[in-house]
User: Fold these one by one.
Assistant:
Number 1:
Amino acid sequence: MKCVRQKSINFHLATILFLCALTNKLCDGFLTDNFYSRPSLYLTVNPKNHQIDINWFNLPDTKILQSTILITTDSTNPLTNNYENVVYEFIVDRADGRQATNLTKNFTNTFDINTRCYDFWIFFIQNDQMKVQNCFQLHPTWMNDMKNILINRKVRDLFLPGTHDSASYKRGFDPTYMDNLITKYSLTQDDDIKSQLYHGIRYLDLRIGYYRSNDEKFWANHGITRIQPLSDVLKQVKDFVDATNEIVILDFQEFPVGFRNSFETHQQLVMYLFQELSNYAVDPAIGWDVTLGDIWYRGNRIIVAYDYHSIVQEHSTFLFPSVRQRWGKVKEGFASLEKFLKESRENMSRESQFFSRPYAEMAELTPEAIDVITNRYGGLRKMADSVNWHVTRMYHGEFGRRANIVAVDFYLATNIIEIAIEWNKRKFDNGENYGNIE
Ligand SMILES: *[C@@H]1O[C@H](CO)[C@@H](O)[C@H](O)[C@H]1NC(C)=O
Ligand SMILES: *[C@@H]1O[C@H](CO)[C@@H](O)[C@H](O)[C@H]1NC(C)=O
Ligand SMILES: *[C@@H]1O[C@H](CO)[C@@H](O)[C@H](O)[C@H]1NC(C)=O
């Protein structure tokens, strides 16, 4: 065990060590003192070309010891089978980094409700010892798996992984030859809602367009571009909730086409949502103060949130007030995004530390209209590619401790799901309470 290697064991540390040994949990976190400086190794899908990237932080001693990262196509430790299953290999000489590979993501997977690895595994090998490993992983039941530690928590206490503009994907889309000026600025994800949920995403951000003369009247849009019929989006969420015991937030945030602030059109949308979701919708009677335990006890597990105050008031037995989204409208580089997210977090904890209404940090760059017209930044894929590694590292670190909902573009190019699950375990497990807002 790593615990034992620590050099200066004073009394305090010895106590922790004892507790560690007892619970067999969190040893690394306590003993290095910085949970957030723990090593991280993970695979991502590059949004620009769907190729697999290798990402890592805090790998120890890469300058001193012979260090290699390997990708394999099954879970067998490559050291035990002479590297037979290795499809990619390279030498690491830095603690933090990212490496493109020549492997490509296959988006035709079928999913089931088993937490499992698929397609590719990754290993960090140092001096012929396997030190860290990971894989592409499905987390279809992560909330229910932690039910005992989440039961008294509110949504506001959790770290929930989310997607920005969740329904802005096209199935079968290959960015290497299909991208045009419209898709460059309208698609924000590579996989559908079902796949997002099976991977572990639990917050969905939706923008709705109303098309009066169409058979399908309501669509999930990105801005003025209509992308997926709303009925298809809702069906995927319902199917997922039927198959699991997970809780999902559906947040209706913007209404970019066909609404023109018309109360009537909103009423129509709410009627439609009610017809589709009333048997699934969490009862908003006590609002965002509801605990996950209450939700599980009552059985309905889709939280339908809506960003229009008077509509929410009128339908107070069906709709939750929307999640507060923290929008930087930042377009240039990670540094400005980081500055915005940190500053708004500080501002918020001054304003509303006792509010139970959740907030979502929108951890992506957003171009302005003129940048879109001139294609100044080369599209959302390129923009996401420039920040997602850094966003992941930031939430892996101390900034993750007080995160609530984090919504990203092209989430398969981040490790946000694994990070959220780890932080929730860290915060609520072991009888400790790190969950309160300081
Ligand atoms: C990827 O590159 C390695 C060499 O590093 C080669 O052995 C392998 O065949 C390549 N795989 C593909 C799918 O092109
Ligand atoms: C992708 O996966 C599907 C289903 O497993 C398989 O039939 C197909 O051949 C794969 N495609 C590629 C390019 O590997
Ligand atoms: C934080 O609050 C300060 C002072 O009110 C304000 O100037 C600043 O714009 C706010 N920053 C963010 C990101 O909300």
Number 2:
Amino acid sequence: MSFCSHFLLLVISLGTVVVHNGVDGTICCAPDQWEGHMYLDYMQIFIDSNTLYLYFNGSVNVSYDYTNSRAFYTIVGTEISPLIPKPEPLNKTYIFDYKKNMQYAIDSDGSCEKSKIDQNMTRQCVQDSGILKSSGKVGDNIITDTYILTLSESFNNVRGTIQRDSCLPVHMVYLVGSDNPDSGSVFSLDVLSTVPRIKNPAIFTPPSSCLKTSRKQSNSKTSQQLETVLTEVFQKRMLYG
Ligand SMILES: *[C@@H]1O[C@H](CO)[C@@H](O)[C@H](O)[C@H]1NC(C)=O
Ligand SMILES: *[C@@H]1O[C@H](CO)[C@@H](O)[C@H](O)[C@H]1NC(C)=O
Ligand SMILES: *[C@@H]1O[C@H](CO)[C@@H](O)[C@H](O)[C@H]1NC(C)=O
Ligand SMILES: *[C@@H]1O[C@H](CO)[C@@H](O)[C@H](O)[C@H]1NC(C)=O
């Protein structure tokens, strides 16, 4: 019944039998292909001579295809800040093709921005270094485990909750400090309706507007920061590093 059954390894250590359904060095790995809906809250706070904040909320449809080295997400949301005159909508689709090392960002008007990816795709696993913090249940008696994870030097103390059976993500939250002790950001992600398959592989084909050479579009600063966070979380490390 395990989606990760082909990773199933029986590791015999110190006379005890430990079942790992991840690969070596991992607690478990999510299926190589899955889709889900995410709800995202992202907030940055600067406590300076002026206290400022940026808040972004929205929903994300994600398709993750490690088998074919590609990923897709559409993000629809709104940015709010006293720094901008009115709420700023964001509606963008991202396609990552790790075989061609290309990333496509498609705006709601159809325009496409291409750039090179300089990362390899990572399999989504909870690393052995994850510290089990608590267990619980959600939905229809789905058992969850919550780990404290370190994804990278700047993304440490990440709290990742997964479904124990499938290792699919459920929730993730992290707080990122900054050089200024009173500033930082909060990133919170709920993952719903995950299924261990890709319904429509055609979503990974970039639209024809991506075949043309395109000029780099100027994004707002938050949109750039959000993209950095999303790229780090969804692509480089996805949810658990
Ligand atoms: C985002 O936040 C705004 C303002 O608080 C709210 O009106 C809106 O419904 C929220 N959107 C989502 C998708 O949660
Ligand atoms: C996300 O997926 C849902 C359900 O499949 C769909 O109704 C919705 O239109 C999708 N949103 C975007 C922005 O693609
Ligand atoms: C986002 O843009 C797509 C077109 O790329 C459009 O079909 C969709 O309705 C837009 N969604 C929202 C919530 O504006
Ligand atoms: C990606 O993987 C290839 C092949 O394993 C390796 O040569 C390359 O250094 C990796 N690139 C990065 C950025 O890690």
